[in-house]
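From the pipeline queue, job 12 of 40. The input is one protein chain; the requested action is below.

Action: predict structure.
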Amino acid sequence: MTRSRPVLAPRRALLGAATAALLGLAAGPLAAQEAFPNKPIRFVVPYAAGGTTDLVARTVGARMAQTLGQQIIIENRAGAGGNIGMDAVAKAAPDGYTVGMGAISTNALNAHLYRKMPFDPRKDFTAVGLLGNSTIVLEVGPGLAVKNVAELLAHVRKNPGLPYATAGAGTSMHLAGVLFADVSHTEWVHVPYKGSAPLITDLIAGQVPVAFDNLPASLPHIQSGKLRALAVAGAHRSPALPDVPTLAEAGLADSVVEPWFGVYGPAGLPAPVLQRLQKALQEALAEPAVKDKLLAAGFTPRSSTAAELEALSKREYERLGKVARKAQMSLD
């Protein structure tokens, strides 16, 4: 009797197909990363259109799009001191197709101010790279006849509880206002807006008398004479306003605040995607046309590696936590 031999070919075929399927599953994410980006990227700006973050994001984003070969769509999502927009970034898929413009406020300060935070800035983001620094300007509208910081302080001491506006609660401008009041021993009432654009409109119209704003948004109105700059809150005078003194020069050295901005993705961005985004960001900031446009607007471009932004975020988180506790800053 002749024994039948086992049929091996179909088994080999099945094993080969299974192996190929497993290799395909493993290679799928890698292939997707290597092809990144193959569709438009969403760049969330956590403040209203017209402010510093919006200007910088659109300028840098347009240049990054050229390098990446895909459109970068700016999405303004204002509210809660930037928390709403950055929460959308934190909860997005970690595939590189959603990034956001984080700042000294959203990624270092806010966690010490808000009782309920929708995200943890230390755990929920992947740092991509720095964008640079802005300058905070102390300014008044046409309805307040003061010409310098000394005159403003004399006025508020006669009128305690004077309102001052910022582009949002928990922003670096808010921090500058708190430190200014604390160091000068004066009483103010904070009026937060959702971005610089509505703040400037009301400041020019006389709805609020004083503001701390990021310089790029206010600079055209200062140059046109609609607003009067009294001082800048940085350690040095701004090249855009060389005749405007610093708060330190006005005798308030402990009021120095220099906002920084950076690009962040959700936690867990794959290394190849992160490297691609980091390289495109660095190339954008090195472009002379981009640098000139940002400098003319009062913003100082400064690039970094992802690791450097991550280290800065952690240092500033610790430093500003101490400042917020000392000043007893808190928000609902």
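Job complete. The chain has two domains: 41-133+260-327, 136-255.
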